[in-house]
User: What shape does this take?
Amino acid sequence: RSGINAGYGATEQAEELEDCVTYQHVKILESAGIGAGDVKKLVEAGYNTVESVAYAPKKALISIKGISEAKADKILTEAMKRCAMGFTTATELHRTRSEIIMLTTGSKELDKLLGGGIETGSITEMFGEFRTGKTQLCHTLAVTCQLPTDMGGGEGKCLYIDTEGTFRPERLLAVAERYGLDGAAVLDNVACARAFNSDHQTQLLLQASSMMTESRYALLIVDSAMALYRTDFSGRGELSARQMHLARFLRMLLRLADEFGVAVVITNQVVAQVDGASAMFSADPKKPIGGNIMAHASTTRLYLRKGRGENRICKIYDSPCLPESEAVFSIGTDGIGDTKD
Assistant: This one.
């Protein structure tokens, strides 16, 4: 079967979802003596899983209308009982990490650079100037995440949050044809939303969280994470408010990656450093926007820049386990691939 086939029945889909579920639905808390009304309030506030409740700070639960401090204590105690939140040995962690699914980018060279592909369960940030292939890479990943795992896919659907109006379904059809997938099924498996402001962008993540409890998703794309922040907040006076808002958004992304084990891919824009000294001594005076908050939230940061013709160069800018090196890939009509020459 090619990836996840939109043609097979709902019962098979439900069984497959149960096989690979890494989270528990928040309704389980009803059996622990938490009222159905309180569980409903949690769901309305965006807490769809027991994990999301256990990972939340107490003050976040108290801020939900109708949940008192005593109730919040009880809910947290019950949620924490059901989640492994203590210490584990490095051996156990090593075993878990060895089973992590990697999503292919479509280019063998790029996959090799990334140690197999885009890692699920963490945030990968791609930044670069315009025309460096950020959006094309996102479109290719939206299709490859649906492939079977033995073909470098994640056998899951894709959620795409588009902030710049650059999502094009016809690009997905071209990539689907290259992998021999059914175009209509591929498009059915991609849920796309256009974000219009930074608050709406955060709101969409709450919807994403409830959609992920209903069917299996392998990838969440935000293209681009910072574009709306650049215009919604202006000048130094609003910088601190912008960074706080951004930190909350990135924290929610990280929570989705932890809870559901999806790969989170965000694209970012760059700013040119125009202050004399740094521009004079560094060969490439461009750096990603979003400051330290963005830098600390992303697990892996990739810097994309233009090469000759259709070629693009990807450099590992920051990663906890990958060495700093480069790979060349190209953009074709059928998405991201290896260079021809």
Observations:
- The longest helix spans residues 239-260.
- Residues 243 and 291 are 8 Å apart (CA to CA).
- Residues 1-15 have pLDDT under 50 and may be disordered.
